[in-house]
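Project standup — Tuesday

K.O.: blocked on the structure for the chain from last sprint. Re-posting the sequence here as requested.
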Amino acid sequence: MVHAASISGHIGALVDGAANLDPGQWGKTTNEEHSERGVGNWPGVTTNIKPPNSTLKLYGGAAFERVMHEFCFATYSIECSQVSREKVRITSFNRITPIS
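H.V.: unblocked you, prediction finished:
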């Protein structure tokens, strides 16, 4: 309730485009976000992902950008199995439906 009351006191400034909320008070580090999420690591990722600015307390657009970087790092770290050209050709051919 205190959080909502504090933010609502700044609504006028936020609507005008000023974001003078204190990141140290309202922002979260990557580790804090992970602990509140309660999910653990990204699914299928075995390495520890640390995006840029992971130790800074961020909120809003900056926090969104950080989680997008984290998502990219996570997806690039997943190892995919090799698929042969023959398997791709057969799979693609089986999905073609004749025109009626």
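K.O.: great, moving the ticket to review. Residues 22-94 form one domain. The chain has one domain: 22-94.
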